[in-house]
Design a protein that fits this description.
By secondary structure, the chain is mainly alpha-helical. It folds into two domains: 2-114, Winged helix-like DNA-binding domain superfamily/Winged helix DNA-binding domain (Arc Repressor Mutant, subunit A, Orthogonal Bundle), CATH 1.10.10.10; 119-270, Four Helix Bundle (Hemerythrin (Met), subunit A). The chain has twelve helices and five strands. It has helices spanning 48-62, 66-71, 77-84, 88-100, 122-131, 134-155, 158-173, 177-194, 198-211, 217-223, 226-244, 248-270; strands spanning 2-12, 26-36, 73-74, 104-107, 111-114. The strands form two sheets. Strands 3-5-4 form a three-stranded antiparallel beta sheet. Strand 4 (104-107) and strand 5 form a beta hairpin. The longest helix is centred in the C-terminal third of the chain and has 23 residues, at 248-270. The termini are far apart. 34% of the residues are buried.
């Protein structure tokens, strides 16, 4: 069975693409998305965990819909919850995940905006990955991320801080190198989001995409091996604490120290010292 959800979304003309008439009037944007076997997933039968996964999956599909991309924003949580058939708490959890991935941003007074900073940087970063190496990439991160940590301490909200600590704990609890890598990226992306600077977020996403190049995986797993995971996760908690204390100087310093440690691990892997007799 296929269930169709539909709704009409009013958005300002200014939110439409530049070739649209920007006369400040409101316009209707229709949206539909399809859920396979939806009769097996109703709000009355889903467990909380299932509801969160269902909401996340359907929202991922929804933000790819042409009309929604054109409008540049998602409907309110209440509308999404009604459409999907889950609680608003499940929708909020899904939106948290999408925000951590850089797919959306939520702004007071403007709603939930589709702001996939990665989309415009993939081609460029794919080419850059062919021209650089993990050590160069760490240098770039050290030039960007301490500043992001500083701005996060100045601009972050309590909600940002709560999510940041959750991400730090996830990096500590990761069970294998691949899981750690995802948790580590989510933690650093949380800081970038809290900095509230779209240009820096875009640059951060480009650098992170370069760092995710598959040909570098062995080097990354060596740098993030299980012996270092506890050390790096502890550094994440220190960074999060400095940001949450709204101490921009300490946040910047702890981020720089953390990335310096990771950089040293990569250098030792790339240029091992010759054994002495």
């Amino acid at each position: 069975m296929v269930l169709t959800f539909s709704a009409r979304l009013l958005v300002p003309q200014a939110a439409m693409p530049h070739d649209s008439a920007g006369n400040g009037e409101m316009t209707n944007v229709s949206m539909e998305f399809f859920t396979p076997e939806a009769n097996a997933f109703t709000g009355a039968t889903l467990s909380p965990a299932q509801a969160k996964q269902t909401a996340l999956g359907r929202l991922r599909a929804l933000i790819e819909v042409g009309d929604i991309q054109a409008a540049g924003r998602l409907p309110p949580e209440r509308v999404l919850a009604e459409q999907i058939g889950v609680s608003r708490r499940a929708v909020r959890h899904a939106l948290d995940m999408l925000e951590a991935e850089g797919r959306i941003t939520r702004q007071q007074g403007r709603g939930t905006l589709i702001c996939d900073a990665r989309a415009g940087t993939l081609d460029l970063s794919t080419q850059l990955a062919k021209l650089t190496n993990p050590v160069d990439t760490l240098e770039a991160r050290m030039a960007i991320e301490p500043a992001l940590a500083r701005l996060s301490a100045l601009r972050g909200t309590q909600a940002d801080f709560d999510k940041l600590f959750e991400a730090a704990e996830a990096s500590r609890d990761a069970k294998d190198p691949i899981s750690y890598e995802k948790a580590d990226a989510a933690f650093h992306r949380r800081i970038a989001i809290a900095a509230r600077n779209p240009l820096l977020v875009t640059i951060f996403e480009a650098v992170l995409h370069v760092a995710s190049d598959r040909s570098w995986r062995h080097g990354r797993e060596t740098a993030h091996c299980i012996n270092n995971q506890a050390r790096y996760a502890a550094a994440h908690r220190k960074i999060a604490a400095a940001i949450c204390e709204r101490n921009p100087k300490l946040a910047e310093e702890t981020m720089r120290a953390h990335l310096g440690t990771v950089q040293q691990q990569l250098i030792e892997h790339a240029f091992p010292r010759a054994e002495t007799a």
